Amino acid sequence: xxxxxxxxxxxxxxxxxxxxxxxxxxxxxxxxxxxxxxxxxxxxxxxxxxxxxxxxxxxxxxxxxxxxxxxxxxxxxxxxxxxxxxxxxxxxxxxxxxxxxxxxxxxxxxxxxxxxxxxxxxxxxxxxxxxxxxxxxx
Length: 138
Description:
The mean pLDDT is 83. The chain has a 5-stranded antiparallel beta sheet with strand order 2-8-4-5-6, with no helix packed on it. Strands 1-9 form a two-stranded antiparallel sheet. A two-stranded antiparallel ribbon has the order 3-7. It is globular and about 50 Å long. It has helices spanning 21-24, 111-114, and strands spanning 2-6, 9-13, 19-20, 32-39, 42-51, 54-59, 63-64, 70-74, 78-82, 122-127, 130-136. A hairpin with a 2-residue loop joins strand 5 (42-51) and strand 6. By secondary structure, it is mostly beta strands. 6% of the residues lie in helices and 44% in strands.
C-alpha cells in the first residue's frame, strides 16, 4: 500500500498506476475539487461536484496513467492510501510544450539520467502550493 498526504490547495502528484480516477480517489472525493493533467500544452481536467446528493466526477479526465503527474486540488488536508505498482524502468515520453510527468526513482538515479533529453529546459517541483525547485538544464 502507498499513502499520499494531500495538503489543502493544489498538490502535484503521480499515482504510478493505471486505473479510473473515481476508483482511486473514492475515499477522499469529498475533499477533492479538481484533478488536471498537462501534456503538449493541452490541459485535461475534471471536477467533483455534488449532484443530487452524490459526489460526481465531471470532465474529460477519467483515467490515471503511468508516468503522468496530476494537479489535485483539495479543500482540506487528507491522506489517500491505495495500491500502486512500480514500473522500475521505462521511458518518459515528452510531447512538445509543457508536460506534467511523474516517475519512480527507487534506483536513486540522477534526474539528468532519467530525463536525458537535450530539449528539456526546466524542471519544477510543487509542494504545499509553492514551487520549491526549478532547474534550467540548458
